[in-house]
Structures are given as C-alpha cells and as structure tokens.
Queue: 2 jobs
Job 1
Amino acid sequence: MTQDCSRLKFVSAFFFFPMRSLLRRIGLRYDISRIANAYYRAKFDRIPAAEKAVILPHCLIGEKCKARFSKEDGVLCVNCKDCRCGEIRLLCEEAGWQFYISPSTNFTKRLVQRKGIRAAIGAACDFEIEKGIRSTRITLRGVRLQQKKVIPQVIVTARYDCLNNDIDWELLHRMIRDGAGGV
Ligand code: SF4
C-alpha cells in the first residue's frame, strides 16, 4: 500500500469513528487498531531499539503473580511463569527494548514521559481503545501522551476484563522479533 493510500485510510478511519456502530451494522469491516497499526508501522520500525517498549496492562498477569510493585516501573515481573508476560520481558531484553507492566493508563502516560519512550506496543480492550481515541490527541505523526509524541502499535485484548485477560501472544512475539512488520 502506498504511503498516500495508507494515510487516507488512517484519516478516514478516525473521521468515521463516531459512526462505527452504523458501519458494522451495514456489514462494513471496521478495525481501527489494524488500520492505525498499518499506518504507523514503518515509523515504529525506524525508532531505535532502546527507545521502544512493550507496555502490557496488569489484566494479563497471573493470579499467583510473584512480582513486586514499583511506583517508578510498575509491576516488576520475575518470570514466575504463571503468565506469559515473563517470556515477553525476556524477549524485550534480548531485543534491547524496554518492558513494563502498567497498572493504569495514567501510569503508562507517566512512564512514557519518564523513560524516554518514543514507540510502544500496548494492549487494551475495545472499551479502553475507544476511551483513548476520545481523550487523546492522535495525529499522523503519533499519539500525544502528556507532552510526548509516541508511535503506537496496539493489540486488542480478548475481553473487557481487568482480571485473567488474554492477548494473541504469538502476534506480540512476531511484532518484537520481526519488527512491527511481523503483524
Ligand atoms: S510471569 Fe511475571 S507478570 Fe506473570 S505472573 Fe509471573 S511474575 Fe507476574
């Protein structure tokens, strides 16, 4: 897809966002995360590894999680293997990326600011994504979180659930291993 075509698709997707229910009812496929990921992908890949991060939501951690919580860095995963966050942490370390598990959206915004993150893969449910679109400044150059512009890639969680949630972990593996082009 050419850059112009990708940009047009991106702008249209956000323009039609308030009409998404209607579009779905008349059978039009409307997946705003997929369109935004595709548009930002090349920009994401150009950011140096040290300024990239995976920031996962706490709804993905295991019930018997052994991690401590740090006000500075969020949930400090020790790879106890009660969930798959630990393997992602190791993958990020190998790739030279930062890795965090965040307890809230506001915490994530502060992390981005404090840790010099310029591109991030996050996971969120449909509800949080819609809330984010309504409350965040989204531009062709990235998403503005507080004073910082970040290039996002988003994975939608399996459910709207703050406990025992799930994502497509293999997709996340590919996104880290092969760059965002692994999608
Ligand atoms: S792997 Fe990490 S995040 Fe998952 S349950 Fe264990 S310590 Fe917690």
Job 2
Amino acid sequence: MIRMLLIALLLYIGYRILVSFTAAKKPLQPSTGTRDQSVETFCDPICGMYISEEQAVVGTHGGKRLYFCSMNCLEKYREQLDHTSPT
Ligand SMILES: [Zn+2]
C-alpha cells in the first residue's frame, strides 16, 4: 500500500515540476517583429514607404543619398525638384 502512495506522490511531484516548467517557459520574448528592426530602413520621401537598403532605389541629390521604393517615386522626386528649384 505504501508503495502505491509513494508512486502517487512521485507522479504528483513530477506533474508539479512539469507544470512549473511550462509556466516558466511561457513568458518568453516574442520572436516576431524583432528581426526586421535589425535591418536599417529608409523612408521614401515621396510615398512615405519604408524600404530596406537592398530593396531601395537609390538616388543622390546634393551629395545626399535618397532611398525610394521604386523608380516611379525617384522620377516623381526629380520632377518635383525641377518644379521647386529654379536652377
Ligand atoms: Zn515610393
């Protein structure tokens, strides 16, 4: 009889350990979204979209590097420059 009780007790203790382990594992930091923050992104001045350097269309203006989501935005930017700065 005592053996049965001991086994029951051991099972109970094992169960409690298991529960405490799974409970401790729960508050892990979320892995989603952290990866993108390590990649540097640039804001497209035309449409406001954020693009990573490898995806971006790079244009230069006055020695400054500008990043666009597409050639369309780069063209628009150049058009705007033509309209705003009379040189
Ligand atoms: Zn754009």
